[in-house]
Amino acid sequence: MMPPISSNDSMISVHVPLPDRAYDILIGRGASDHAGTRIAALAKNGRVALVTDRHVADLHADKVEASLIQAGLSPTRIIVPAGERSKSSATLIEVCEAILAARIERGDIVLALGGGVIGDLSGFAASIVRRGVRVVQMPTTLLAQVDSSVGGKTGINSPHGKNLIGTFHQPSLVIADTALLDTLPLREFRAGYAEVAKYGLLGDAKLFAWCEANWQDILSGGPARDLAVAASCRAKASIVVRDEREDGERALLNLGHTFAHALERFVDYNGERLVHGEAVAIGLVLAAHFSVKLGLCAGQDASRIAGHLAQVGLPTRISDIPGPRPSTAELVDAMKQDKKVSRGNLTFILMRAIGEAFIKRDVDINEVTAFLDEALQER
Ligand SMILES: NC(=O)c1ccc[n+]([C@@H]2O[C@H](COP(=O)([O-])OP(=O)(O)OC[C@H]3O[C@@H](n4cnc5c(N)ncnc54)[C@H](O)[C@@H]3O)[C@@H](O)[C@H]2O)c1
Ligand SMILES: [Zn+2]
Hints:
By secondary structure, the protein is of the alpha/beta class.
């Protein structure tokens, strides 16, 4: 069952009907203007710890804070450095201590204002401070609006790998103000767009076709942007509601990600060379071509996917990554480090067609190696 979508003035509301932990995602231009009243309804003691990063604090925190104060709330601002490095154990403990210093208790709220880094870090902190206080997600990147703020996965990175320490902690509310994306650098916006396209590719051919027709309006901030965020949240929510803890179907959300994570590991998570959504764009194209090579999917679908992502300005080939190229062995090794390996064989999300992804376990390493040998040949 798809979660219902309802519209109230220009805002779109998507309901995530998890048993005991249902919540709403409020989407639209100006959605953050409603932050104060919506959060005041949740925070009965009136205290809010507003966690954000330096960039977002300078751009958007004053306005959000004003809305909280106007609704009678007392916010305390907690600012961490921008970037993936803040998903560390040291920063986690600093944020937890700052939340405690702000006297946040069970009746109060942690508000995560920022991209996926802030959402993952603050969500994790909220889940362990006092054994769990509520978190409201206010995502400010496209990636966070369509992916990381919904679904309850929180966490930090370890020297052993990304996101290896964390919890499931569903938000009490998500407020996705699409106007906040106007200040996002184009490169970050496009990276988030790869995840929007992913939802079409994994389960909704009509959504992908709609993206092909409307991508310019999505990028420029027209009405299609709100609809794209809503369609993505609906797609993610419906999967999360059926499989909250990724025992099965939720793995479909990893379409393109086995390849993407290997590429990110190869560049050592150097965002100047490759940001996550760019790796996902290349990964989606590789997953499609791999599906073609295994005789599962028509070649024209793979070309159509590559064509659309390239048109949007995303990289689609391994050779699009600046700097030295990986070898097949380096990529296969990186894939083996990823958590989707069992007994030496790999799990991939593959496609029968656009909109028809499925989970394929026990993919033979030799098939992957032969495919990557070919993929690395192309310029
Ligand atoms: N929990 C999940 O389910 C999930 C899913 C996908 C990704 N993630 C995580 O999300 C993180 C990536 O998130 P991200 O891409 O949002 O990165 P990010 O949070 O680092 O944000 C990217 C950059 O944009 C800046 N920024 C944020 N909002 C802005 C705005 N409105 N205007 C201008 N600049 C702005 C940030 O300061 C940062 O420099 C990764 O750590 C990844 O592991 C989590
Ligand atoms: Zn992703």
